[in-house]
Amino acid sequence: MTALVRRVAAAAVALTLIGLIASDLWIGGFRTWWDRHSLTGSIVSSLLVLAATGLIVDEVVARRQRRERAVSVAVQGLIVFGEPRRACRAILSSEQETPRASAAVEELRTLASMLLTASSNLFDDPAARRFLEQVQRLSISMFRALSASSSSALSADDRARLMAEMSQVETAVTPLLVRIPLNDRALLEGPPGD
What we know:
The chain is mainly α. The chain has seven helices and no strands.
């Protein structure tokens, strides 16, 4: 059940309960009708209590699951973050017809494979989804820059665009990084030059 559906259902149940209580307190005919139809009143009240309880339990469970998943999604995002960083560095340092250019192509292949694998886990978390979108934009730009530079060296405009997009990826990964304890983050990020 999505968060919006849960909230709408909870609001509908709450409004129904408030309406029934208000009607019972202020409308004599309403109270008399429910008194004469005690089985119906009992069933309606039981269903409303069950709905309210179910929605509360559902919300508590959903929050707990989101909280537990937040760190694992952040760790996966951090692992994914390392690959576009390496790929961008390889492309920016590559020269035409050198082993570094083939390393850049290999890094891009690895990035594409990693994105296909990780995207399903990152998609459900809003911060991770924004990060994933930025990485996808960067990867497209890297593919374009590498294919355009196959006949010549990487242009200054391409370099500036890649560096700006890499900066956007770094900004997008920041909300994920704050979820990971500092000691664990240092272990996961690896050496700074990696």
